[in-house]
Specification:
2 helices; single chain; mainly beta; 11% helix
Length: 174
Amino acid sequence: MFLSLPVVLLALQVQPRTAPPTPPPPPPRPVQAVIPRPSPEDEAKLRMIPHRIELRVTAEGQILWEGPLMVSDRQQAHINYSKREAAPALCREDQNRGEGRQNNITIGLGSNYGDRTRPSYRLDVGWVRSVEERVCGGGGTRSVSVNQTVLLPVGRSVTVEGDGGLSIEMIRRD
């Protein structure tokens, strides 16, 4: 039993042909955000822009110092205030040895060089004052200091409390 050639060709044409399966597409690539870094020149300019920090230093119900300070990443601000005066008139002459009263305030404020999204400042405040009950009898002083790094974004305020009732309020306006 032989099939004729046209029948064989017809049988070959009728059979369905299947193509090999196509492979699935590759997974999508992860998207990576590119945040441009400032050039070294632009970074240097940003570090020179001053920040205005308003300070109010209080203790024992009085303002010891109040005012704005300008700091940048490259420049700190320093205040030294010293007041010395005669002892009160109620001291007897033999008790007044020239010590008098004193009140000294030192303030140092600097921007911490670093992350601009978390602006922080180094605060150093010292306060020295006469011991009131001993002014006539031989002098003496008391001192307190605060040395702290403070996170202070634009438009925010922070109050730092120290010993002896020392309080420092910081406000960053710009």
